[in-house]
TrEMBL record:
<feature type="domain" description="CCHC-type">
    <location>
        <begin position="142"/>
        <end position="158"/>
    </location>
</feature>
<dbReference type="GO" id="GO:0003690">
    <property type="term" value="F:double-stranded DNA binding"/>
</dbReference>
<feature type="domain" description="CCHC-type">
    <location>
        <begin position="161"/>
        <end position="177"/>
    </location>
</feature>
<dbReference type="Pfam" id="PF00098">
    <property type="entry name" value="zf-CCHC"/>
</dbReference>
<dbReference type="Pfam" id="PF23058">
    <property type="entry name" value="RBD_ZCCHC3_2nd"/>
</dbReference>
<dbReference type="InterPro" id="IPR042509">
    <property type="entry name" value="ZCCHC3"/>
</dbReference>
<dbReference type="InterPro" id="IPR036875">
    <property type="entry name" value="Znf_CCHC_sf"/>
</dbReference>
<protein>
    <recommendedName>
        <fullName>CCHC-type domain-containing protein</fullName>
    </recommendedName>
</protein>
<dbReference type="InterPro" id="IPR001878">
    <property type="entry name" value="Znf_CCHC"/>
</dbReference>
<feature type="domain" description="CCHC-type">
    <location>
        <begin position="124"/>
        <end position="140"/>
    </location>
</feature>
<dbReference type="GO" id="GO:0002218">
    <property type="term" value="P:activation of innate immune response"/>
</dbReference>
<dbReference type="InterPro" id="IPR057811">
    <property type="entry name" value="RBD_ZCCHC3_2nd"/>
</dbReference>
<dbReference type="GO" id="GO:0008270">
    <property type="term" value="F:zinc ion binding"/>
</dbReference>
<dbReference type="GO" id="GO:0003723">
    <property type="term" value="F:RNA binding"/>
</dbReference>
Length: 205
């Protein structure tokens, strides 16, 4: 036993070379196992490619936040400083019962479609979502709206869902979470609070 300051450190000191050698021999081999901290596996740099300036990064952020924890976002520019349509996000994937929850391969906001990719992302069929084949080899006739197999997208009985928040009550352009609508709302709110201030100002006199 050893006393260091107010702490007591105790342990067994191994003596003798042969004892140490035997222990090493019987221990399991860890040579093939690479140990990475959990946080490093879950952290991903995600590229989202949507070639339309009309798609706001804030909306892509809201969409991403349905599937993972978004840490930051930036627009990728070319050497002339022109937007390339690629947006880069730092995210932390979510685990459910220990299993990593991956992001979809595609994104659609209103009429705009794009692709989503990062290292280690499972490749899925863009049509039916299967992990066994890609869209070019897909033989499924899947409704793009509700993923059912017994009807086409044009004959879908399910109302078109908002592709930002997945609500069936509105479309993307009317989504209260869409950046342009939030902006309108906050402008409206500040206009209302301004008019209240004016009213208070007048009632004081
Ligand atoms: Zn498929
Ligand atoms: Zn359908
Ligand atoms: Zn919505």
């Amino acid at each position: 036993m050893l006393t260091v300051g107010r702490h007591i450190v105790s342990g067994r000191v191994q003596t003798g070379r042969s004892h140490g050698f035997e222990k090493k021999k019987s221990a399991p081999s860890f040579r093939r196992i690479t140990i990475s901290p959990l946080a490093d596996i879950d952290l991903k740099t995600v590229h989202v490619m949507i070639f339309s300036e009309r798609v706001r990064n804030q909306d892509v952020w809201t969409w991403m936040a349905r599937y993972c924890e978004v840490i930051n976002a930036m627009e990728v520019m070319d050497i002339d400083g022109i937007k390339t349509g690629t947006r880069r996000f730092q995210v932390r994937l979510i685990r459910r019962q220990g299993a990593l929850q991956h992001l979809p391969n595609t994104i659609q906001l209103g009429a705009f479609r794009g692709s989503v990719f990062y290292p280690g992302q499972p490749k899925e069929c863009r049509k039916c979502g299967s992990l066994d084949h890609l869209a070019a080899a897909c033989t499924m006739d899947v409704c793009r709206n509700c993923k059912a197999l017994d009807h086409t997208t044009a004959h879908c009985p399910t109302p078109v869902k908002c592709n930002l928040c997945s609500s069936a009550n509105h479309r993307f352009k009317d989504c209260p979470q869409a950046y342009s609508n939030r902006l309108k709302l906050s402008t409206l709110r500040s206009a209302v609070s301004l008019s209240q201030e004016v009213m208070i100002f007048f009632s004081d006199h």
